[in-house]
Amino acid sequence: MNDLATPRLSPATLSALADIVGAERVLTDAESAAHYGRDWTRFHTPTPSAVLLPGSIEEVQDIVRLAAREGLAIVPSGGRTGLSAGAVAANGELVIALDRLSSIADFNPVERTVRCGAGVITEQLQQFAEGQGLYYPVDFASAGSSQIGGNISTNAGGIKVIRHGMTRDWVAGLKLVTGTGELLDLNRGLVKNNAGYDLRQLVIGAEGTLGIVVEATMALARPPQDPAVLVLGVPDMGAIMQVLAAYQAKMDLQAFEFFSELALQKVVEHQGLQRPFETPAEYYALLEFEQLTGADMEQAMALFEHCVEQGWVVDGVASQSVAQAESLWRLREDISETISRWTPYKNDISTTVAKVPDFLSEVEQVVNGAYPDFEIVWFGHIGDGNVHLNVLKPDDLPVDEFKQRCGEVSQWVFEIVQRYGGSVSAEHGVGLLKKDYLPYSRSELEIDLMRQIKRAFDPAGIMNPGKIFDA
C-alpha cells in the first residue's frame, strides 16, 4: 500500500507512537486514511498524518500527551457514520480510532446500567440489553456500525426521541481524556448529583472538541411491549401535525416519523420493498405504539378512522406481525442508505413542533424555487420538530459545483431557521459542514463562551480543531 503523500510525521514521532500502541497499530497507508479519516460525508479529502488504534484508556492518554507536547492535532474516530464532517481529518491530523475500546462490563441490574468502551457498536449495546431483558432505546439507521463514543460526542437522536429522548438522557456517567491527557470521571452513574457543574453534559454533543470520550456508563430501560406500526398517507404537512395531535391526545407514541412520496419511491425502487398501499400521498407518517392491552390497537384504528373522516389521512396500513412491522420500518429507515448513491447535500434542521407546518412550507418554497432541476427528498423525526432536507446530486454535476449551489441556498434556509428560533443542526452536529452557519442558531456571546470552555478543556487547541467553530 502507498504511504500518504502529505503530511509526514518525523521518524522520532512515529517511533514514539509505535512505542505506545505497537507498530502494527500506527497506520500510514492511503487505504487506512480513506477508511478512518472521514465519516459518511464526501465533501473533504481525508489526509491524516497517521491513524492510531489504541487498546486502552492509558494508551489514549499517552497519545494525547505526546500530541500536546508536539502540537499535533487530533481527530477522534468512532464508527465514522457522522453526517457533518465532524470526524474528518483533512489537514494532517492524527486520527485516534476507538474501535478496540469495545468492552461491555459491570452490568448493574439494580441501577439498570452497564459500562461500555467508546468503541462498542450501538447495536451491540442493544443486543446486550435485550439479553438482560432490558432495552437501549436510542436507535437509528446506522446502529449496526455507529459507536457509543461517537453517539455521545454527537448527542445522537434517532427514531425514538419523541418517547425516549436523545443520547444525553441515557448517559449515567462518562470518562473523558482532555486535551492535556488528563482523565475525567464524570458523574459516575449517579442518578442525583447536584455538586456543582455537570461537566458530563458539556461533553455530550461537543463532537470531540473538548476531549475524547473513552468510556461511558449507559442506562437501560424496560423493553416496549408488543410494538405495532402504522403507516398513513397524508395529503400535506398541516395534516401530519393534526394526525400527531390526535394520536398523542389518546396514546403514548414510541415514534412518529415522516417521509415524502419521492423518498418512498426511491426506497421501493432500490431496496426491493413494496409500497404500503396503492394510494399515493404527498407525505407518509409512520407511528409506533405499544400494545399493552387488547384495546390499544382498537384505539389506534378508531383514531385512524377519525383522521380519514377529517381529511387528514388518505389511506393507511397497520402491522399484523413483527415481520410486517419491521418491513414497514424499512420504508423509513432505509432512506439514508438508499439516497447515499446521489451524494446528498443534507440539512438537518428543527424548530418547535407546533411551528413545523409553516416552517416547512417556507423552506419548501425557497428550496423548490432554487433547485427546480434537483430532486428533493424529505424525511425526519417530525414528532420532535426535526426534519431532514436532502438535495440529490445529478449524476452529471461535479461535486464541487453541487456543493457550491447547495451552500448558497442553505443560507436562505438558515435565515428561515433563525426566524423560527430553530436549529441549523438538530441531531447531526456541526462539524465542518455547518460551522459557518452556527450564528443562525447561537448568539455571539454563546459562541464566545463555547470557545472559552474549549480552552479550559483543551488549552493547546489540539482536539478536533476547526470543528463547530474556529478557535
TrEMBL record:
<dbReference type="InterPro" id="IPR016167">
    <property type="entry name" value="FAD-bd_PCMH_sub1"/>
</dbReference>
<keyword id="KW-0479">Metal-binding</keyword>
<dbReference type="Pfam" id="PF01565">
    <property type="entry name" value="FAD_binding_4"/>
</dbReference>
<dbReference type="InterPro" id="IPR006094">
    <property type="entry name" value="Oxid_FAD_bind_N"/>
</dbReference>
<keyword id="KW-0560">Oxidoreductase</keyword>
<dbReference type="GO" id="GO:0046872">
    <property type="term" value="F:metal ion binding"/>
</dbReference>
<dbReference type="GO" id="GO:0051990">
    <property type="term" value="F:(R)-2-hydroxyglutarate dehydrogenase activity"/>
</dbReference>
<comment type="subunit">
    <text>Homodimer.</text>
</comment>
<keyword id="KW-0862">Zinc</keyword>
<dbReference type="InterPro" id="IPR036318">
    <property type="entry name" value="FAD-bd_PCMH-like_sf"/>
</dbReference>
<dbReference type="GO" id="GO:0022904">
    <property type="term" value="P:respiratory electron transport chain"/>
</dbReference>
<protein>
    <recommendedName>
        <fullName>D-2-hydroxyglutarate dehydrogenase</fullName>
        <ecNumber>1.1.99.39</ecNumber>
    </recommendedName>
</protein>
<keyword id="KW-0285">Flavoprotein</keyword>
<dbReference type="InterPro" id="IPR016169">
    <property type="entry name" value="FAD-bd_PCMH_sub2"/>
</dbReference>
<dbReference type="GO" id="GO:0071949">
    <property type="term" value="F:FAD binding"/>
</dbReference>
<dbReference type="InterPro" id="IPR016164">
    <property type="entry name" value="FAD-linked_Oxase-like_C"/>
</dbReference>
<feature type="domain" description="FAD-binding PCMH-type">
    <location>
        <begin position="44"/>
        <end position="223"/>
    </location>
</feature>
<keyword id="KW-0274">FAD</keyword>
<dbReference type="Pfam" id="PF02913">
    <property type="entry name" value="FAD-oxidase_C"/>
</dbReference>
<dbReference type="InterPro" id="IPR051264">
    <property type="entry name" value="FAD-oxidored/transferase_4"/>
</dbReference>
<dbReference type="InterPro" id="IPR016166">
    <property type="entry name" value="FAD-bd_PCMH"/>
</dbReference>
<comment type="similarity">
    <text>Belongs to the FAD-binding oxidoreductase/transferase type 4 family.</text>
</comment>
<dbReference type="InterPro" id="IPR004113">
    <property type="entry name" value="FAD-bd_oxidored_4_C"/>
</dbReference>
<dbReference type="InterPro" id="IPR016171">
    <property type="entry name" value="Vanillyl_alc_oxidase_C-sub2"/>
</dbReference>
